[in-house]
Amino acid sequence: SAKGDFDDVETIAVPVDFFYRYSEDLSFGLGYRYRTTEVSGATTADSDDHAFYGAAEGRLTPTVDGALRVGYQQRDFEQSTYSDDDSLFAEAALSWTCVQDCTVELSFGREQLTSLRTQSVESTYVNLEWDYPIDAKLTATLGVGYEDRDYTDLGTGADRNDEIVTVQASGDYNLIDERLWLTTKLSVEDHIS
Question: What is the greatest pairwise CA distance in the chain?
């Protein structure tokens, strides 16, 4: 809802995955994700998205786990002034346990989003994260990410491209064994238009 000079983008996503356990280390499946987006303000770009995809996940080696979802995403806008859109939907992640309890995770994907200014956004991203347990109660995480966003104004068709570089550090402290954690995070983003 609009609050003074501010507008909101509200998104609710509901994914459903069905997996068949092919072996102890590997599962295959099919999935569907419904996502609704509501944009407040004078000109809204409310939409419903439907993503249909195939999926695979499991242990690739004794130290590497992976997950993959690839399929088709359909976006239906509520206002007929905007053209419905279809695109590739993809998400993937690899997690490597490099030394005792230390993990490195690489994730990447592509999907469509909606901006506050009634723009359709094609987002392609890659993230790299390193988790290191300092002791039994404290874990440190360092991460870097890159995202390429292609914006298309739904009213005029004008295009714009942004690149976003993110660097982040966080820490988790286990206050009460497996029940209560204290988390702190510092994140810096650089937007290049």
Answer: 57
Contacts of residue 144, defined as CB under 8 A and 6 or more positions apart, other chains included, come to 127, 128, 165, 166, 167, 168
Q: State the pTM of this model.
A: 0.74
How buried is residue 5: exposed, middle or buried, by Cβ count under 10 Å (0-12/13-18/19+)?
exposed
Q: How far is CA 154 from the centre of its chain?
A: 22
Per the CB < 8 A criterion, the answer to whether 122 and 109 are in contact is no
Which tens digit of pLDDT belongs to each residue from 46-88? 888 899 999 999 999 989 999 999 999 888 877 776 767 788 8
175 has a pLDDT exceeding 50: yes
Give the sign of the dihedral formed by CA 44, CA 78, CA 9, CA 146: negative
Q: Which of 170, 167, 112, 109 is nearest to 139 (CA)?
A: 170
Q: Are 165 and 190 in contact (CB under 8 A)?
A: yes
